[in-house]
Amino acid sequence: MNAEFIRALDVIQEEKSIDKEELIQAIEAAITTAYKKNYGNAHNVEINIDREKGDIQVFALKEIVEFPENDHSQISLEKAREFDSNYQVGDFFRKEVRPRDFGRIAAQNAKQLIIQRIKEAERNIIYNDYLERQDEVLTGIIKRIEKGIVYVEVGKLEAVMLPSEQTTGENYQLNQRLKVYLLMVKKTTKGPQVNVSRTHPGLVKRLFESEVPEIFDGIVDIVSISREAGSRTKVAVKANEPSIDPVGACVGQKGVRVQNIINELQGEKIDVIKWSDNVEEYLANALSPAKVVEIIPNKDDKTAIAIVDDYQLSLAIGKEGQNVRLAAKLTGWKIDIKSKIDYVNQHQIKNQETSANQDDILLELKEELELADESIFEDECLHDDELNFEN
Question: 146 and 169 share a domain?
Fold first, then answer.
């Protein structure tokens, strides 16, 4: 070890962003392991490296006891006090030693351990770096596709995009540049593994944040997102300032802002709707682009009936129920779509049934009253007969 070696550590610290002190501590630990491997585990040693000159010192450590049983690890109190009168039983006697050929042996045995520690330090730095960027959007380049798994180069490593995180209908090509959502970072024996996604709703949210300054600045908030990746997404937004139109801010002049996001998502349709604390208004907005005539909510179980004109029925429901399904997921309400005619007819039938039921009840009541009158009449006649008999 010398000053040149210390300068080399300075270069590693600058180029690889690995803390110099952490490297020196790793080297000290590696040399300690090398020493024990060559001179026996019975020897307790402490390695110190001069941080400026790079000089290395080896100190033998022995526990101070009254009656030593192991000369390699113990020393008597009497002998220890020959060097320092302040020693007590239980202290450790520390003496510098200079083992023969130690420099060569230490270098040979510690080399791989030092390299390993450097790699571990690099991996930890990369892991922590990507951990801080979790739930963010990264721009990457597709480097390979194997068995349906897409490997995307994002900075210092290859991220994994599993088939379940790939958008149906998107074609992925080698060297294609695309934006991905950093889903998860985990440690493995081979280093950090980063999983990314193109289907997560968070991708849409981050794209809006980067495209719409009002969202980034907190003037407009994204309240909720419901997404069927590759097909359609609904985004509910609200403004924190009365003068701001949240939908207009997100769509942009001539739809430029939202169109940039649609292009990034390769044509996925996006509905930007205005959030409202008025349930009827919010549910009606969520069913956009369909026009809703009336919302009849049941707040007890969060269900609602949405009444639309007949020609709007298929639009409100959407292809295979997609529109109403996304609206329900966006709002957290179960929504039943009814055409105006069907709803009116249904209520007419219910009213007729109710009227018929009322007529039946009145008829039954009338019959009961008639029977009661006959019973009373019979009782009166019987009473008169009894009076006549007594007379």
Answer: yes
Q: Which two tokens stand for residue 374?
A: 């006959």
Q: Among 197, 227, 222, which residue's Cα sits nearest to residue 208? A: 222
User: What domain range includes position 81?
Assistant: 3-130
In the numeric block, the tokens 């109710």 are attached to: 354
- 275 alpha carbon, distance to own chain's centre: 23
pLDDT, tens only, 40-66 = 655 678 888 888 888 888 888 888 888
Instruction: Give the CATH number of the domain where residue 152 resides.
Output: 2.40.50.140
Q: What is the mean pLDDT of residues 166-173?
A: 92
Amino acid in the structure at residue 82: E
Q: Provide the whole-model pTM.
A: 0.70
252-296 pLDDT, tens per residue?
Answer: 999 999 999 999 999 999 999 999 999 999 999 999 999 999 999
Residue at token pair 């590693």: 12
Return the H-helix or E-strand segment holding 39.
Answer: helix 20-39
Higher pLDDT, 279 or 10: 279
Tokens 């709002």, residue located: 331
**Residue 300 belongs to a domain:** no
Q: Which of 168, 197, 226 is the last residue of a domain?
A: 197
| CA–CA gap between residue 236 and residue 282 (Å, rounded) | 9
Whether pLDDT at 222 is above 90: yes
Helix (H), strand (E) counts: the chain: 12, 15
125's tokens: 């730095």
- Neighbour count for residue 358 (Cβ, 10 Å): 10
Higher-confidence position of 160 and 46:
160
* Token pair in block for residue 185: 């970072």
CA 237 to CA 279: how far, in whole Å?
Answer: 15
Enclosing H/E stretch for 350: helix 340-390
Run of H or E including 60: strand 56-65
